[in-house]
Amino acid sequence: MCVSLCVSGASTPIKHLSLRSLLPDTEHFMTYEGSTTHPGCWETTVWIILNKPIYITKHELYVLRKVMQGSQEAPKAPLGNNARPLQPLHHRTIRTNINFQNSKSNNCPSMYKEMYYKANKWTHDVKDQPFHALQHSLH
């Protein structure tokens, strides 16, 4: 992938940018259909939630907040702080490729409505906690 970085009108090519290297090493994720974070909030987005967090330092977060987006035709705007308020779930289906194996049984597991997904030391009940809270950008 060849990308150019523009700073103060000067353009510098970035010869190698591996998006994979920016993501945690996991093949497990959840997805749901939702909307864009900017007005008109169109229902055209598939949100992907990785099962491992991406850790950054406070300094990296500060630098990331300074990144601007836009083009020569459109005004520059901060890349971050574009999160919408928490939205109702609206009967959205959350899909996952995470294998919830039941080690005590040789039968195929069934999908339970109140299945828990646990990461680190916190647990969310899918029916009580919409995953829209996780779609917010850094702020």
Automatic annotation (TrEMBL):
<feature type="domain" description="Alpha-carbonic anhydrase">
    <location>
        <begin position="1"/>
        <end position="98"/>
    </location>
</feature>
<comment type="similarity">
    <text>Belongs to the alpha-carbonic anhydrase family.</text>
</comment>
<dbReference type="GO" id="GO:0006730">
    <property type="term" value="P:one-carbon metabolic process"/>
</dbReference>
<protein>
    <submittedName>
        <fullName>Eukaryotic-type carbonic anhydrase</fullName>
    </submittedName>
</protein>
<dbReference type="InterPro" id="IPR023561">
    <property type="entry name" value="Carbonic_anhydrase_a-class"/>
</dbReference>
<dbReference type="InterPro" id="IPR036398">
    <property type="entry name" value="CA_dom_sf"/>
</dbReference>
<dbReference type="GO" id="GO:0004089">
    <property type="term" value="F:carbonate dehydratase activity"/>
</dbReference>
<dbReference type="GO" id="GO:0008270">
    <property type="term" value="F:zinc ion binding"/>
</dbReference>
<dbReference type="Pfam" id="PF00194">
    <property type="entry name" value="Carb_anhydrase"/>
</dbReference>
<dbReference type="InterPro" id="IPR001148">
    <property type="entry name" value="CA_dom"/>
</dbReference>
